[in-house]
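Lay summary

Proteins are chains of building blocks that fold into shapes. Our project writes down both the chain and a compact code for its shape. Here are two examples, one after the other.
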Amino acid sequence: MLVLGIETSCDETAASVLKDGKEILSNVVYSQIALHRPYGGVVPELASRRHLDTIVPVVEEALAKAGVNLKDIQGIAVTRGPGLVGALLVGLSFAKSLCAVNRVPLIGVNHIEGHICSIFLEKEVPFPFLSLTVSGGHTSLFLVKGIGVYEVLGQTRDDAAGEAFDKVAKLLNLGYPGGGIIESLAEKGKPKIRFPRALPSADSLDFSFSGIKTAVVNYVKGFSSLSENSKGLSLEDIAASFQEAVVDMLIKKVIQARRLYKTERLALAGGVISNGYLRHRFQEMAAAEDLDLFIPSPYLCTDNAIMIAWVGNHYLERGKQDSLDIDALSRWKVG
């Protein structure tokens, strides 16, 4: 089966062709980072308009790189939600049109389910397992009992972890997106500052990252300068300290869930999982906890259409398909 995947949930226009749910024939991603950088974050209206400009050439490139034509495609999987409604509508409307003209089945895919299942493109993970999904818009911990069978164990009560990275980077005038910039700075600094770790009650597996953001704000306000000579502290040290605090909070809740649910396997997913420091810390934790750890390659962590095609292939093979009147969903719970 050849499945065309389309992803436009936020600020990447992506398309991919997947063969039999295993072989990646193409993977095309057009990023809007340069467009949104002057504003310090994604501007929904601009994102939607840019998707309109790029959706056709991105899909055409994906088909060309795969060496196939639309008549060869046997199903189209498209992100239906959650995400920015305007952005989602571009991809969903385009996918509907292709399905109507070429008479192929359509399947709307949950973006978060795509992230959860991205690990299956590289490794087989026995069920059940914990899945920690960390991105710019989402931070959630799931117990995955099977494809389509997900129990939400915990989620952020305020900011997502990736959102906190972006906001702290903006506060420090570092630029956008903040994740890569803070990671690079942190490599040159030391975690000298003990920022507070917000950990909701012991019986909760939820996360909270607004507190760490506020702590950085208050810390910076306490200094007249962020230069190297400002009491021996630097931007590099602030970045390293902030990054350590965020990872500590993630690890703490995963360990709590691992012991509570007696699970032996953990899979990571989402754009923030591309962070090298985070990956290293989780590898150390997994070794200490005797936990089997599964981490996708970085290109499968960030938003892409391969993971959407994989989920779509799974459901299409089982005879599921959506009608052409489905709507985009800004919020859509997994499962």
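And here is the second example, written the same way.
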Amino acid sequence: MKIESITLREIHMPLLYPFVTSFGKEIERHILLVTVRCEGVTGWGECVASEHPYYSEECVATAAAVMRQELIPALLGHTLERASDCVPLFARVRGNRMAKGALENALWEAEACAKKVPLWKLLGGTRSEIACGVSIGLQESLDRLEEKVAVELAAGYQRIKLKCKPGMDVALFERIRNRWPNILLSCDANSAYTLADAEHLKTFDRFDLLMIEQPLWHDDIYNHSKLQKQIKTRICLDEAIRNARDAEAAIELGACGIVNVKVGRVGGFTEAVKVHDVAQKHGIPVWCGGMLESGIGRAQNVHLSSLPDFTLPGDVSASKRYWAEDIIEPEVTVSGKGTIAVPDVPGTGYRVNEDLIERLTIKKETF
């Protein structure tokens, strides 16, 4: 695949409902999309960085700058046998994994289209359908939270994840567990606690949670290992796992019993598969986390989730949970039993709605 041109564009997509976490509230997404064209084939990628550098050091502006100044010049004009060949071309640039991942994933889609195979087959997937859960942001009241959970369970979702933070945790779990004692329930702290909160976090054990996701510092493994020894609920690491080496260290230190794999957070499909393989080797289940992606990133998450160790329901939910109109056709839909079928056609199996993207675009550059 000879890389002939690359287009960056920023689009604005309003969320159907505000999404509130310990980081703050999002009411719309500023999304950086990448289009890679190589010898008649086009691949699309999505940078999952947010408008602000709160979840990670990256944001839309920094990702665009790094792509423009470093990554795109390193890629243009090269002929690659496979998408993963871009990894050494990007290696001199430290960090900036979300920027790298957007470009790399576009190349994986292009490779799948060029070879006329489904993306999941290139990645090593084995499933024809994936199990789905939902992430529910902090709500203005417990009644509203209960209403939201009821809606998602009625839609068939197999796992409910509640965002939490100090002062908004135990009461949430009590309300939901009292009404639904047997559902698969987990929580996500987004680094809102410290090790000084260990005694409080021990109280979460009585709610039979599947996991508590990233309770401590975003870049910490060691203190999570100390916390895991004090609580029964399995810790799931998210932000702290940046690559397969982090996963290996966290598992060997006993810092987690579950790993969240976000393809953008680890820098693209190549590293995501490596993280998956490390966890599988150690018997640690993984699941695919979400970053409020548009349909482009969401479709690629569907294919990643088909790998064999993705045994827990991920945050890969239906387009209609977030968008009045998604930018792919057909939109991602979830069955009544809480699953998504993995398309068995070349590429991702979803068509990009370029007319809608043009209407949503506020900035565009082609190299």
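What can we say about the second shape? The chain has a mean pLDDT of 96.
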